[in-house]
Amino acid sequence: MRWTKTLIPTLKEDPADAESVSHKLMLRAGLIRKLSAGIYIYLPLGQRVLNKVVNIIRSEMDRAGALEVLLPALQTPELWEKTGRLKDMADIIYQFKDKSGKPCMLGPTHEEIITYLVANEVSSYRQLPVTLYQIQTKFRDELRPRFGIIRSKEFLMKDAYSFDADETGLNKSYQAMDQAYRRIFDRCGLNYKCIEGDSGAMGGHFSQEFMVPSPAGEDIFVTCSKCDYAATLMLVKCQPAPTGAKADKQPLKEVATPGTTTIEAVGKLLNVSAQQMVKTMICLAGEKPVAILLRGDHELNLSKLAKLYSGSLSGSELLPGIVGCPKGGTADWSFRMDHNRQASTAALLGEANITLAEPALIEKVTGGPLGFSGPVGLQSRNGVPIISGKGITIIADHAVMSMSNFVTGANKKDAHLLNVNLDRDFKPTHVADVRVVTEQDPCPVCQSPLKINNGLEVGHIFQLGTKYSKALEAMFLDEKGARHPVIMGCYGIGVNRIIAALIENAYDDNGIIWSTELAPYNVLIISINPADKTIAAVSTELYDQLTAKGIDVLWDDRDISPGVKFKDADLIGIPTIVTVGKGTIKDRTVDIKDRKTGRKQIVSFEKATDVIMTNV
Predict the structure, then answer these.
(1) Which option is the CATH number for 9-232+450-505: 3.30.565.10, 3.30.1360.120, 3.40.50.300, 3.30.930.10?
(2) Of 25-34, 201-210, 518-527, 550-559, which range is least confident?
(3) Taking the model in full, what pTM does it have?
């Protein structure tokens, strides 16, 4: 392709509204243009890269035995109502009515639609297993789209779904997708980490995320400094603090703390550290208030708390997490599944919908305003239970159990308590791990130091189980004629995000550094003076030779200054740059530059094609 025959509108400066590296470089290199917040146009270079990602995904999914389908982007809400997700995801779903008044929606995902398809087309165990996939546009009404195509309202996604007759089959399907994903991300040239994931609204009892480290990543994950352990931040187990000898209990004392509602303010006023304070957070489990006790410097982990209440985790401890595999590695899948199943125990209150209480409810429950809550006197007031029948549930994080003589709110305005102690002043209803891990916590597997990273999620695979098949009656008959719900897996890749993720880790001060497989073109020919007959002839011959060998070539035949051409070459990041200039006229040679390493070599025109072929 000649540069003069395509559209590559490069920019000299970073756009003012571009935040992340990938966003800036994709705009500057002429890959995308913004239509409105979260909505982007792909220009020719960007579309070529997108097509290459799609081709890699499609080839590896086909290799893994998955069958491609195309599901409608336009959906009807009835199926979503059956699974309960229409209400759960209402804040991001585009909903409207067609001309006949029928409710419609743009699909943010396709679990309901694919399950509907299988429910109507698969009826026997003889038709299982089957894995179906599609590459389709999704729509989500993001309140705050950010970082260009990283978090947008319209995006391209590959989603696959496996359907099996039993857990053994699900494990095999899941393994096949796990390995396919690793091949996809390896071929794309991504620096990724496979981590234990949180299934969230998708459901299911086990999932993994494929994360690319990036400052622009809105996900946070934890890695071990020594072993291969890796997990999303909200899943990492925090081990109980060592139980050493506690200090002698000092007399309980109330002190005035006017206008001090934060840990920092109270600590400064009373000259105590956050580690010597306990904050009391009032949450709602459904409609029931519950008090959570955390050390002052720790944060509440709503994900752990929700699983504690839903029965996914026991009341006394959380799972240590599942060891992440290095690229190309394998995992003991049967151990992982058994390990996860052992976590399923009776719920504390059987309620997974956990939210933070509003200030008015906090004052009603505790007797004091927001910022002054504490556990002392919380379960009963003047001997009368606050919550009719049993008093409010108090869940203490493990870290609180090793503390003594700590500071808490006094459940009244402008007052705190000094020298609060467990057992003497209050007794928690339950003790559990309900906080967010920190870098001061040890690895739950090998006890080595942890590192907290920002990451960009490019893929997520789930073992869904029967959540959707039961709700939508996707059943099959076994060999004895008994009906069972099909067992499902779900496997998603953010196609657009792969492009941004690669750029976030592959750039320099001059521009993008593409991997060989994702580069929009493999070779860029720069004609210094395209009007010169010798330069034009050599450029044409070289272009024709490389094109005949199946190499994607971009020929910069613009009649502009060499400086602009060289800057644009580095900006758009084509892996191999060939300059046809003065040396070509004088010595019949060309300059070949490797964009990634910056290494240059001068070769005769007769050898140029062979040298270039060794690089691409």
Answers:
(1) 3.30.930.10
(2) 201-210
(3) 0.84
